[in-house]
């Protein structure tokens, strides 16, 4: 299944983009720092196995490193397992330090 990364996905427009992508059969990784967006906009997606929310500021260089790591690692394994490994090993992951 294809995977899309939506930055600003908890905002009004971004949340609708997430909805549409999931309806089209595309897994979504939503990255947002909730500065102007709201978790309420994506609350209905939280239980969906094809949706992953990462509370992070995309202006932080670690997000760029995360995206590059996901891209190159996804050549070897599914994206879901990459995201899970970052969540399970937060101290060993330099990419998601918050």
Which bin fits the share of residues in helices?
Answer: 25-40%
Largest sheet: 3 strands, parallel
Number of helices: 3
Provide the gyration radius in Å: 13 Å
User: What order do the helices and strands follow?
Assistant: EHEEHH
Task: Give a description of the structure.
With 98 residues, the protein is of the alpha/beta class. Helices cover 37% and strands 16% of the residues. It has three helices and three strands. Strands 1-2-3 form a three-stranded parallel beta sheet, covered by helices on one side. Strand 1, helix 1 and strand 2 (27-32) form a beta-alpha-beta unit. The longest helix is centred in the C-terminal third of the chain and has 14 residues, at 61-74. Residues 87-98 have low confidence and may be disordered.
């Amino acid at each position: 299944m294809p995977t899309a990364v939506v930055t600003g996905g908890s905002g009004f427009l971004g949340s609708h983009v997430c909805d549409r992508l999931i309806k089209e059969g595309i897994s979504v990784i939503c990255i947002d720092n909730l500065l102007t967006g709201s978790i309420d906009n994506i609350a209905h997606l939280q239980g969906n196995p094809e949706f992953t929310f990462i509370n992070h500021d995309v202006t932080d260089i670690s997000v760029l490193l995360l995206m590059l790591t996901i891209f190159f690692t996804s050549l070897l394994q599914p994206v879901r397992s990459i995201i899970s490994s970052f969540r399970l090993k937060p101290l060993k992951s330099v990419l998601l330090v918050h």
